[in-house]
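Give me structure tokens for this 883-residue protein.
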Amino acid sequence: MNLYLIDGNSYVYRAFFAIRGLTNSKGFPTNAIYGFTNTLLKIIREKKPDAVVISFDSAAPTERHKIFEDYKAHRPETPNELVQQKPYIREIVRAFNIPIFEVPGYEADDLLGTIAKKTAEQGMEVFIVSGDKDMHQLVDDRIRIYDPVKDRILDKEYVMEKFGVPPEVVPDVMALTGDVSDNIPGIKGIGEKTAKELFTDFKSLEDLLSNTEKIKKDRLRKLVEENADIARLSQKLATIDKDVPVDFDVNEFSLKEPDWSKLFVLFKEFEFSSLLKLVPSVSTSDKNYETLLSTEKLNEIISEIQRTQEEFAFDVEATGTSPMKDTLIGFSVSNSKETGYYIPLRHSYPDAPKQIDAKTALGKFAVLFENTDIPKIGHNLKYDMMMLKQEGINTHGALYDTMIASYLLNPNKSNHSLNDVSFENLSRRKKTFKEVLAKRNSFAEVPIEEATAYSADDSVLAYELKNVLFTKLKEEGLENIYFDIEMPLIYVLADMEERGIKVDIDKLSGISKELEKELDSIQKRIYFLAGEEFNINSPKQLAKVLFEGMGLKTGKKTKTGFSTEVSVLEELAQTHELPGEILSWRSLTKLKTTYVDALPELINNKTGRIHTSFNQTTAATGRLSTSDPNLQSIPIKGEWGKRIRQTFIPEKGCVLISADYSQIELRILAHLSHDKTLIDAFDKGIDVHSRTAAEIFGVSVDSVTDVMRRTAKTVNFGVIYGISPFGLSEALSIPREEAKKYIEKYFEKHKGVKKYIESALIEVRKKGYTKTFAGRKRPIPELKNSNTNIRSQGERFAINSPIQGAAADIIKSAMINIWKHLKQEKFSTKIILQVHDELLLEGPESEAEVMKSIIKDKMEGVVKLVVPLKVEIGSGRNWSEAH
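Here you go.
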């Protein structure tokens, strides 16, 4: 039977200092809790101990403090962030059902030493988990040290090699060398090497002190003789007490099943999503999941939902995750927390049962999906709706999307999958799509029985989550942002994704060839400047060329060598040509691989268009993002970015219309701050960047140069992001003092902005979150963090999030209003893209002029600010021309 004795204090401190800046969304520090729990889990999972004990130091003074006042006196005061976490670490240990030993007047080391000695005598194999070197004295045939950091066992041979003495003589060695961590004095001037040499001639400290005349070196002999008392004191301090008066029953040490319900509550409170996944899922044996293989049963379920006209949840299963390419395999529905029904349509594998004809089943359910009076529930409803649309079914009515509800409640959370959300809110973990698919090529090959359990569970979970999450939305005052913006936007985005956008393959092919030639030219130039050929994609080889071969000034250091990231190369490019060429090569390579060569591969064979995905739940500020492909990162400026945008074209007889909000974030800042200077500039139509340039450079607006205006633009937008003098100096490549002066001059002229920033920080520190004027919230836990850099980041979020969030609310609302108008008036023009503050539409040339008027009116009139919203609008035969 093996027993692991854990030095709690040692690993709590290690965890605290090893992991910095970790907090939950409320700003409560969790780094020590998380690190310690992971260490504990590592031991349990990997070492599979029969028994575990944890010991902590008590706050009461020990015998060592009484005999030596300065014992551990040099240690700094325990950080408040760690003090806050200690009680919860004990709670977690108790939830693991692991005994805790803590005796006033004794250190954890003494308790572990006592327990180790007594249990080893009873025949147990003991492993002490500690990073303290004084614990090595306990090692014998049955007691060893386990180091979880390096994952190694330290035995008697290790101790002999490290200290040069058997384990029992380790305190004698420490009596000479001292111990900095515990402030054990030792004899100054004697280090580990000298101590080892001495103990080759002497058996123990007392042997040494009684026979000092045998010490060959005069200086060393004198040192030992003059400090004999200090050595004896140090030996006492370093010796672990193995006879602490503590009673225990070794049977109580046996590792038990944790109290998972308690651990779930704790992990959830601290937002340990990775640890939450370790908690066993709740059994679904109480659920009734049924496969519908007959039209009679199908009709019965449909009639029941029609009769009650109550909400129902649904979930579709397809061959993949791309609705414009996938085939629908089946779908499930649920109208209770206990019952779910799966309707298989196209499962195909040996001995698969006969399924209801897809057209028949979908035709019958269409009366429910298209009924505007029956609310629909689901998780990521946009995908489900688009899959149904491919089958000719249009989903109507109120939508309760639990994925979006989860996102609105915690926009900082990176993952809002059904698995994560149901586990977090219902303590239920379900199988993932990958787990069900296993090694099969398609969901069509999944046995219907498995598919039923999986899909019906999805619907039941969504149904159950709806009440939980939408109750929370109401409590948090987030209902309006959901029902007025995010829910109707689902319909808009589904239509946009279905419509897609056309690209000119021939033009892309031509650009690809040109880029290839340009990259080949740049590559030759790089090799010439470097004086050798190397792998430009290899940061290690590039660093060697730049910093060793060429002797350029080194920048940031990483684990693998010196950094070659963009900021480093930009700085180096000011003094040498090569880093600039590397930046050009990287930029063009990314454009070629990410867009020019990749876009043709993404064209849908059925539609001949590219169907990007619009994501509502990724950006914490509320902004939409795009993926497959990410069209938001195509450069707006630069010749190549312009050329790529020229490849996005309309269908024959149509044009593209681009409508772009002008300086929307600065206009929102004017609205929030009521800054007179900003308001005056926007009211009079004065170029705000030129005015700012005139203010900070002390010239008239007419005298502002392009360089001055670009500098002022950086200042204007930098203020929104809470930029510091250091940040501005980096952005403009100017001295910090000069950057500081620009910021000071800005705030002299914009007192309203300064006041807004100050009041925004006070408000967020008090409430813990930002809020847009439409009601969107974002928690800012970083403001409570003890780490200066993280706290500064929180301040930037506090300033910027209400502005970016408001911009997101405005453009989303404009999209909804335009989409509704186009539908009602039966225009052929469609919204096809949303990128940053721009909308791109496609429609017949005959509608173009009236469209421009409608779009401008809807976008500029979507909300009333203290300054006018302005939209720049254009049309053309390609995206670049329209923009």
